[in-house]
Each structure stands twice: as C-alpha cells, then as structure tokens.
Write a structure and sequence with these properties.
heterodimer; A: alpha+beta; Ribosomal Protein S5, domain 2; 4-stranded antiparallel β-sheet; 12 strands; B: alpha+beta; OB fold (Dihydrolipoamide Acetyltransferase, E2P); Ribosomal Protein S8, Chain: A, domain 1; 3 domains; 5 helices
C-alpha cells in the first residue's frame, strides 16, 4: 500500500505502552542477526557491509591525496557522504541529497571525528602541502529502520580494515594497496535511542520508526566516553530521559561492539 | 485430437504450450492461440474440469470481482470514499455502497470512514479502465479497529485460508485472535494479548513460506498444538483448495 505514514501508529503505541514490541524484542535489544562482512568492494581501500535484521548498509573508504585545509595544515581530511538509494526504501527518491541523507552522513562523521577515531595527524605527508583525504561513502541497501546505527557501524568497520594505497611521486596508484592501515585510535559506536510515547527503545524496525516521536543518537567509545550526540524528531527529551537514554545507549551499544570486535 | 501437454501441478513458464485442441478452455493465467492453450504466467498448472488454469507462484495482486480485500481509506469525497488496497489504483466506494446504515443527505462522511481507517471491502466491479468499485455493505465488510496489519504474498492467500477456512479457523482457535485475510495479501490480526498476535503472525508466515509443501495442515496443527477442525462437507474442488 502506498500509505506508509500513519500506518500502524496506534497499534505500535499500544504495544509499547504494554511494554512489548511488535516483534517481541526487549526495549534494549537489537535485531538479530547482526552481520558484518569486510572488504565487499575490491576497488575500495576498505569497505564493509552491515546487516541489522533486514536493514542493510554498505560503507566504502577511498583514499586520495590533496592539499590540507588552512586551519589544519598538519592533518589529513575526512569527508563523509551518504546516499539513500531509492532501491532501499519506497520513501527514498532519486535526485539531490535530501536532509535525511545529509543528517545521516553528519551523524556518522561527527561520531568518528569527535572521538578522534582516526589519527589525522599521521595522515599528513608534507605539512601544508600534501595530506591524505579519506572519502567515506555510505550506501543504504535496505531500510528496515535504524539506518543511523547500521551506517555508523558500517563506516567504522570499513575504516578499521582500510589500508593506504601506493603513493608514487605524490600520485596515488589506484588499485595498488600497501599493507599500511589507516591509523585508528579508538572505536566509537553510535547507538540511537528512540522515544515512542514515554518509552525509550533501541533499533526500531520500519513499522516502529513511523511512530517515533523523537530520537537521540549517542556515539560512545570503548571506555564509555560520549563523543557526539544528535537529537531528532519533533518532541523533546526531559533531562531524566536524556540520562536514561545515555545509560541505555551505553548498554545496548555493547551488542554492536561485540560483533565488531569478533 | 486433444492433448494435455503438462502434468497436474507442474511448473510452467510464460509461453509454454499447455494443451492442444478445442476441448479445453483457458482460464486465469492462460490464453488461447489458434488450437493451442498457452501459459501467460510462471506458476503451477491446474486442470479443473475443462478449465485450464495457471496458479502464479508470486506476483502482484490483481483485483477480481467478488474478492474481499483489506484497504485503507485515503480520501473522503462528497459522494463516497477512496480506498487504497495495495494496487496501482485506489478503489471507489460510493455513498450507496458505503454503509448498511441510512446515511442522511447532509451527513459528514468522515464520521463513517475517515482517512486512515482500515476497512474490509468487497470488489463489486472491475472495469477495463482500471476503475474499481467496492462495497462496504456486503456481509463481512466492516471497519477494522486497532490491530496488526501484515503483508503476505497474495498468491499464498488460498493456502492461508485453507480448505473451507480450515487453516484460518485453526489459527483463530489456537491463538484466540481475530484474523481477517484479504485476497490482496493484507492480513489483519487482533487479539487481547500481543503474544498471541505474534504467534498468529508467525504461523501465517510459516504457511506463506511452506505453501507448496504437502500436508501443510497437519504441520501447522502440530506447530500450533491443536487438532484441525472437522471439515463437514468435503467438496471435490474448491477455489481455496488449489495449491
């Protein structure tokens, strides 16, 4: 049916109020299986495909050289981009990136950047002249809800396996990879908490996502530090709710971290 | 010379010759070309008396007269409602067919069905111009309340209903849920307990996945741990039997 909005809103709210979910999961439980497959693209310097339930995202890392930005002369650059492919959801249309796509890329980017996951200083070749650019591209293959967590996980998984290409006379030899890995310092996991009615849940599926009132994405590194947050949706979180959301995110993100470090 | 060229329940492909001669008639999924009857679908060959039919393995639901479908009201006009039932075009429910109650001249039609409401409707007319008229007055037609709406492959619907509704009544008995199956592949489930509703959905998914296997009723009755209801008068062939 074409009417995707408002489809089973009342029913989802009813279930959530009864402390249960449409597929029988706990509020803090991710869908299973969570699958991460590495190096799915042989042209990319690093790539990963993540499946959380039926949600599927591919992230790819390409490396290039360029001049640094004037304010970070001794650092490499990270450029994140995301594309919501029309095949992944009936709601995504071809054309210029829409706000949802831009937001997805920025949440992923911020989690990686603010946690200092990549040692950008080590990506400097000659200060002020030549640095590495990391181009991180996110493609949604299937949207069954909770794209943010899947995209962030795919991005981090792809970066963890990414290597530098061969560099000759300041030119990148594409298709020839070295064994040097992209310098990684930490692994932040982004976990999004969704608010439906008065309840906080993780990892909504598509039906639940239609009933979401608000969401809070939290990027947490392995030592439990919070590095980035993004709030979305039309209603607010109270202070206590933010506290419990962060607690829930810390706990639930371990389910994703476990798969990443496996 | 009359020949049936394929075996019963054999998988046929579009363009495949099914029969030779004028003694048989093409029905759904088949057409006549000269002396031959040819399949137009990928599906199972089925012979019902003189009628040759191809039961599709999958594909989009195509509306037929007298089908009971589940849809969602999208629009309320001056003289009726428009209902989205998962096809390319919405169907029309005219004021006359809207309700068994008397509708006064100046009534607010959204009091009967408002946009977003789920309804069970019966298709009363399918025109070649893709205009579809439906009725909400026929027996069984009504507005559905809050419940779980799931989508299944529409070609599996006869299997979910079972012989004379045996499968569906088994699910209803075992879970205590109210289940409405539309021919368009939408299934509405409502029960008192979410756990039971989930059990119903899982059972329906199981039937959908194993639709082509033999002895499915026994499998499902074992899965649900109930006895199938006695079928009172066994008929040779029923539209719901096939597959």
């Amino acid at each position: 049916m074409n009417d995707h909005g408002n489809r089973s809103n009342n029913y989802i709210n009813l279930l959530i109020n009864k402390k249960t979910r449409i597929d029988g999961r706990q509020f803090n439980e991710f869908r299973q299986p969570i699958e991460i497959s590495y190096n799915v693209s042989n042209k990319a310097e690093g790539s990963a495909r993540v499946k959380i339930g039926d949600t599927e995202v591919i992230a790819g890392v390409k490396m290039d050289v360029g001049t640094p930005y004037p304010d970070t002369l001794d650092q490499g650059n990270l450029i994140t981009n995301s594309e919501l492919l029309p095949l992944s959801s009936p709601l995504f249309l071809p054309g210029p990136p829409d706000p949802q796509s831009v937001e997805l890329a920025r949440i992923v980017d911020r989690g990686i950047r603010e946690s200092g996951m990549i040692d950008l200083k080590k990506l400097c070749i000659r200060e002020g002249e030549l640095v590495w650019n990391i181009l991180l591209d996110i493609y949604t293959i299937n949207d069954d809800g909770n794209l943010i967590d899947a995209a962030a996980l795919a991005a981090i998984a792809a970066l963890r396996v990414a290597v530098l290409p061969k560099l000759e006379k300041d030119k990148v030899q594409f298709g020839e990879f070295t064994k040097t890995k992209v310098p990684i310092k930490s692994t932040p996991i982004t976990c999004t908490i969704f608010k439906i009615g008065q309840s906080l849940i993780v990892d909504t599926n598509r039906q639940e996502e239609e009933s979401v009132d608000a969401r809070l994405s939290v990027a947490i590194s392995e030592d439990g530090q919070i590095h980035a947050m993004q709030k979305g949706g039309s209603i607010g979180f109270s202070l206590e709710e933010v506290d419990s959301a962060i607690g829930l995110a810390k706990k639930a993100s371990e389910q994703l971290r476990k798969e990443l470090t496996k | 010379m009359v020949n049936i060229l394929v075996k019963e329940r054999e998988i046929v492909v579009p363009g495949q010759e099914l029969a030779d001669g004028m003694d048989y008639l093409p029905s759904e999924g088949a057409f006549r070309e000269g002396d031959k009857i040819i399949s137009s679908k990928l599906g199972l060959f089925n012979l019902d008396g003189r009628l040759i039919k191809v039961i599709p393995l999958g594909g989009k639901y195509i509306p037929k007269k007298n089908d009971t479908v589940i849809g969602r009201v999208t629009d309320v006009g001056f003289s009726g409602w428009r209902v989205d039932f998962g096809w390319a075009f919405n169907m029309n429910v005219s004021l006359k067919e809207g309700s068994r109650d008397f509708i006064p001249n100046d009534a607010d039609l959204s009091q009967y069905y408002a946009p977003g409401d789920l309804v069970v409707a019966k298709i009363i007319k399918v025109m070649s111009s893709k205009i579809i008229d439906a009725s909400l007055k026929m027996p069984g037609c009504r507005k559905l309340g809050t419940g779980r709406l799931i989508e299944v492959e529409s070609s599996r619907v006869p299997r979910i209903i079972g012989k004379q509704g045996s499968m569906i009544s088994m699910i209803k008995d075992a879970t205590g849920c109210n289940v409405v199956v539309g021919q368009n592949g939408l299934v509405w489930i409502a029960g008192t307990d979410p756990e039971n509703e989930r059990k119903s959905e899982e059972t329906i998914r199981k039937i959908e996945n194993e639709a082509h296997s033999e002895g499915l009723t026994d499998k499902i009755s074992a899965y649900l741990n109930v006895k199938p209801r006695e079928i009172i008068n066994e008929r040779e062939s029923n539209e719901n039997d096939i597959q």
